[in-house]
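Design job #97: recover the sequence.
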């Protein structure tokens, strides 16, 4: 337990973190990679270049400081990050390295204001938080390895099928090279894929939601080809997957992970809302609901630029067909002439609350949503304005957690 004196010191630093938090975390990553360049094999380089990782860490540190007297309040955040750490291969020996450079970054940014007393308080707090992560992750590692079909670290999977789903999204069906059983997963979870791209100095690891269904003998991921024109590395891996990974290629895959998952015991109406490639976990949820709870009220809403960029449409409509309690609605931001002629969508433009209230019978439901951050912010704001409680607004960020408010 932290001493009361150190609790008071950390709470007093909250205003400083509001001002300097991202500067501190930016300096932290500079120090970390200068001292341990091998860790670039774990971290997402694109998120680093875009500043998303620095912002996410700053928000986590800020949340820890605000809740320092009741760290159990941030346990859901801890579990979400711990799932990512397990799938990436973060180990207990990494935590002292992180602690050393986080404290060093605080000192570098704050200078003389970071007294020995302040650094000592943060060192003690970091030790407690790190122990919490290590404990949670140890159980996750144990579970991932010991479950039926489970394994430790990464396992080779071959691409059994490669299917183009839209102009920008392609599905990869992955089967284990050893022909053995694979770990089951909950709809909404993801896997990590580790790749050595020719010409790249460091290994790249990306996490992709599973778009297939539990119980299959393969995993399916559906990957959007990102635009690399801005040179932020955001599309290096997706372009490589689309252009160079073919049927028969072998990828290194982690066991499934993630806290964003369908509650299969909930009997209430469910609304699945997605934008762009954010539909991947929703399709997995929808198939599970169709197979296990066909009498449950399910509304599937998806937003795309136009029909050419709308992936898995036929698959979703096939799952909904013949199930009177299921319904689908499509939103196209910029429908083509063919889309208009075919009546291929239900709303033009962007999702908004008045339209949601037209197509969703009641706010007394559980809402799952995923997509680009601006899309998720719009959905979250609409649901909040409608009076949907926070516990019934469930969402997943692709990459480091951002802000929805």
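Job complete. Output follows.
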């Amino acid at each position: 337990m932290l001493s009361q004196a150190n609790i008071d010191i950390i709470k007093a630093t909250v205003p400083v973190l509001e001002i300097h938090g991202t500067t501190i975390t930016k300096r932290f990553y500079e120090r970390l990679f200068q001292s341990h360049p091998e860790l670039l094999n774990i971290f997402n380089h694109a998120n680093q270049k875009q500043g998303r990782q620095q912002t996410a860490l700053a928000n986590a540190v800020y949340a820890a400081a605000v809740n320092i007297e009741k760290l159990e309040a941030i346990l859901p955040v801890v579990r979400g990050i711990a799932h990512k750490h397990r799938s990436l291969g973060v180990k207990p020996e990494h935590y002292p390295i992180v602690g050393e450079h986080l404290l060093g970054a605080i000192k570098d940014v704050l200078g003389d204001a970071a007294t020995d007393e302040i650094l000592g308080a943060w060192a003690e707090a970091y030790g407690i938080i790190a122990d919490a992560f290590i404990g949670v992750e140890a159980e996750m590692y144990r579970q991932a390895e010991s479950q039926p079909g489970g394994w430790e670290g990464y396992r080779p999977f071959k691409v059994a099928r490669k299917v183009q789903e839209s102009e920008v999204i392609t599905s990869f069906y992955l089967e284990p090279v050893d022909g053995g059983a694979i770990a089951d997963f909950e709809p909404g979870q993801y896997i990590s894929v580790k790749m050595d791209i020719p010409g790249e100095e460091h290994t790249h690891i990306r996490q992709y939601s599973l778009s297939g269904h539990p119980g299959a003998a393969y995993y399916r991921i559906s990957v959007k080809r990102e635009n690399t024109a801005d040179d932020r590395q955001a599309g290096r891996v997706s372009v490589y997957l689309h252009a160079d990974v073919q049927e028969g290629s072998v990828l290194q895959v982690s066991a499934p992970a993630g806290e964003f998952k369908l509650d299969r015991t909930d009997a209430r109406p469910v609304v699945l809302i997605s934008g762009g490639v954010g539909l991947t976990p929703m399709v997995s949820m929808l198939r599970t609901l169709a197979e296990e709870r066909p009498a449950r009220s399910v509304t599937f809403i998806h937003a795309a630029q136009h029909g050419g960029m709308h992936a898995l449409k036929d698959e979703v409509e096939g799952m909904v067909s013949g199930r009177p309690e299921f319904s689908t609605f499509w939103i196209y931001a910029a429908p083509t002439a063919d889309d208009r002629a075919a009546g291929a969508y239900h709303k033009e433009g962007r999702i908004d609350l008045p339209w949601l209230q037209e197509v969703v019978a009641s706010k007394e439901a559980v809402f799952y949503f995923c997509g680009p951050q601006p899309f998720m912010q719009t959905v979250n704001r609409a649901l909040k304005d409608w009076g949907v409680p926070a516990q019934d607004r469930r969402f997943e960020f692709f990459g480091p957690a951002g802000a929805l408010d």
